[in-house]
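Attaching the record inline, Q. Sequence:
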Amino acid sequence: MIQKQPAIVLRTVDFRESSCIATVLTPDYGKVALMVRGVRKPGNKLSGLFQQCGILELVYYYKESRSVQNLKEANLLQSTYRIRESMEKLALATASLEMAEQLIQENEPAQTLYDFMFRLLSWLHQTKDTPVHLFPYVQLRLAEILGIGVKLSTKDVARDGHIAYLSVDKGEVTLNQNEGLCLKLNPQQTLYINLALSGRRKELLHGSFSPQEIRTLIHHLDVYLKHHLEGLRDRKSDYIFNQIL
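Structure, as predicted:
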């Protein structure tokens, strides 16, 4: 059966002398592994397309009994090359794609996740901003997409200057430390979550958040996600990401 899908390249692994296996995110079939034959040969027409962050239009042969499908055609759908020109952009994109890969399954629709990652990568390609503070925003959006989004317990939490707590069991940010696992948020981290949940991304980019505040918030949100998603692993890309914070 021939399938035609837009796709985002999550990662690639070299195979034999000239080929690679590309793992991609598709809206209709979730995660798909593709054999891309000859892509590493000099002058191959697919050379340069199958790089992490690439957004492509694919045609491939699908067979249910295969774990790796065979690519037929590939064309560029959306340019993303500027992401690789910035260490900050590439670090954010790499961490986001690695996390997205863990959250999707094969042969399961992933339209909402695909749409979010498409918008994120397209924006990273176009923006002149330095997105070093945005990974906790990505974590919060992915949690929302998966149906385990973090909520504010009361309107009082939205006020500036409060110490608050992330209730890991309940998925709430609250002013009071409840029973169960609660992670303390300083006023700036509480403000960050408020801005992220209200979609105020520009204010996140230019807010006065220290690297340590961002690292700690990323850790807290990882604890929350691992509590609700069985098998979620540490990201290999965190080493690079932490170098630029």
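The helical segments are 87-103, 111-126, 135-145, 187-197, 201-206, 211-228, 238-244. Residues 2-79 form a domain with the OB fold (Dihydrolipoamide Acetyltransferase, E2P) fold (CATH 2.40.50.140).

More tomorrow.
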